[in-house]
């Protein structure tokens, strides 16, 4: 039991849960782009449009939360998890969300 206390503390940490949701939103977008770029009938113009579409998606994500981030916010306050005491443990600080997304946008723009 004691060896799982650290894991339990992480899973009760709001920052960890929201970071996880952010990573899922980011990875979903990157996966969509990656799979689209692997298509057999892709040319440079289509590839550029796909990258621009992903850049736009990440820019939107900077301004508002993604699908999984919103779901996590709903779940944390829902009746389903009312018995779990979610905490804002400042020992495990959340990711710098905006800076992370801006860096992704910048790096994608360099690929154009």
Automatic annotation (TrEMBL):
Q: What is this protein called?
A: Uncharacterized protein
Lineage runs: Eukaryota, Metazoa, Chordata, Craniata, Vertebrata
């Amino acid at each position: 039991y004691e060896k799982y206390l650290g894991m339990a503390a992480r899973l009760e940490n709001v920052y960890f849960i929201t970071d996880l949701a952010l990573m899922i939103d980011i990875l979903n977008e990157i996966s969509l782009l990656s799979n689209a770029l692997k298509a057999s009938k892709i040319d440079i113009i289509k590839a550029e449009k796909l990258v621009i579409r992903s850049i736009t998606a990440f820019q939107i994500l900077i301004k508002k939360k993604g699908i999984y981030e919103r779901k996590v916010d709903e779940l944390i306050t829902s009746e389903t998890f009312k018995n779990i005491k979610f905490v804002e443990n400042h020992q495990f600080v959340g990711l710098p969300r905006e800076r992370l997304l801006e860096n992704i946008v910048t790096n994608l723009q360099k690929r154009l």
